[in-house]
Amino acid sequence: MELDNLIEFKSSPEIKEKLSAYGFAKTFAEGEIILNENAYIKAIPIVTHGSIRVMRTDEDGREILLYYIKAGESCIMSFLGGLHHDTSKVKAVAEEETEILFIPIDKVSLLIKEYPEWLDYIFRLYHKRFEELLEVVNAVAFKKMDERLLNFIKKKCELTKSHTLYVTHEQLANELGTARVVVSRLLKQMEDEGMIELGRNKISLL
Length: 206
Hints:
It is a single chain. The chain is of the alpha+beta class. It has 2 domains: 13-141, Jelly Rolls (Sandwich); 143-205, Arc Repressor Mutant, subunit A (Orthogonal Bundle), CATH 1.10.10.10. Helix content is 45%, strand content 25%. The chain contains 7 helices and 10 strands. It has helices at 13-22, 76-83, 105-114, 116-142, 145-160, 169-176, 180-192, and strands at 24-28, 33-35, 43-49, 51-57, 63-70, 91-94, 98-104, 164-165, 196-199, 202-205. Strands 2-6-4-5 form a 4-stranded antiparallel β-sheet. Strand 4 (51-57) and strand 5 form a beta hairpin.
């Protein structure tokens, strides 16, 4: 697997060779579950193509989006859970067709000891994910649902590099942790205000 320009840290050729040698690649279809909550973590994922959405589910089955993992990034929750032999506290789903290089946990520990830049990569990921989680907390605690919905649409458009999203109202509601009827009402209001254009299972940002 070609790792050049994909790993989001300045790494030596040696560590890229080690990642390729230690890891195994797997491709997931859009919507396919990569990791379930309460599952044991045996390998750390590095996204080489595509993107992953990471969700948290409550006891009633309601979900809320925590963050996205893009190409060149990994999941800090997997790092922490795997290194401490703990189960996953989140669910990871392929946002689109996604290719992942999985690094076994025991090899991750070896890389930490041998390559300081690998540890730096982990810390920088931790910092980024922490900031994103603070944004989620801030949005849930202080922002109105219409503002959260619009920001979510913009972020999803940025992720897909498109002004049009192919998504149902039910999917948006699930990722925002709210009811479908609330999302439908707010989307219609945004359309009336000329912010978006609605179609069948699609939303265009104007």
